[in-house]
Amino acid sequence: MEKLIITAAICGAEVLKEHNPAVPYTVEECVREAKSAYEAGASIIHLHVRWDDGTPTQDKERFRVIMEAIRKECPDVIIQPSTGGAVGMSDDERLQPTELNPEMATLDCGTCNFGGDDIFVNTENTIKYFGQRMIERDIKPECEVFDKSMIEMAVRLAKKGYIKTPMHFDFVCGVNGGIGGDIRDFTFLRGAIPEGSTYTVAGVGRYEFPLAALAIIDGGHVRVGFEDNVYLSKGVLAKSNGELVEKVVRLAKELGREIATPAEARQILGLKPLK
Fold first, then answer.
1. Which of 177, 193, 169 is closest to 108 using CA atoms?
2. Highest CATH level, class, for 6-269
3. Which of 192, 202, 207, 247 could form a disulfide with 174 if both were Cys (CB 3.0 to 4.6 A apart)?
4. Using an 8 Å Cβ cutoff, are 227 and 48 in contact?
5. Where are the alpha helices (DSSP H) in the chain?
6. For residue 214, what are the β-bridge partners?
7. pTM, 2 dp
């Protein structure tokens, strides 16, 4: 079984310091959280950025500053900026970090009701537009799927040449408006991806660690972090993203999976090695 790639989603666009005081907003806080995750065993940092007051932004220069600062402390880590942004942002606004030519970026593959009147809109044309941008800039897309229909959309568009193959998926489970996070939900998504694909599981809230264990056993990969869950265990706030990564490392050790280094993660995902 190949080694386990751990992704740390260090801040997201919605979680706040009110939920956990360690949630990072500033450049220095993002570096601190990325470093804690990297040193614990994460080879990918999934990155949203904020202004210092916590307001989410897709500003290219804010991404540049934070990505460069993270690389100074974690020189070989894979930085995967989000193109999801926040509800209400335009396509071009969301695509700004791709102008920095990262190795990877997220590609959301469908529209989802996030609660109340919040709709996270990803039309078919949006997905095509984002996919073409990533092909043009040689960026590996992580196809974010909140339900099985989004896998089918991604596969269909890949066959038409809009998404690079072999495909890499992120099963986001437990989000309001999306698929749940039970074993049957994981199995449903896992069985729908094409042969030769890789996948990561991101369980939201209480689903984070049970789904991590399933992915470890199955040979998949795992995402944890404050974007998805701020608790180390029920009622116990995590002190850092590194604590969440450490828990996955312990699970992997118990279940017989070795942890991938960033270099090994690049090989598994088909990324170019660092020069």
1. 169
2. alpha beta
3. 207
4. yes
5. 27-40, 60-73, 91-94, 124-136, 148-159, 183-190, 208-218, 241-255, 262-269
6. none
7. 0.97
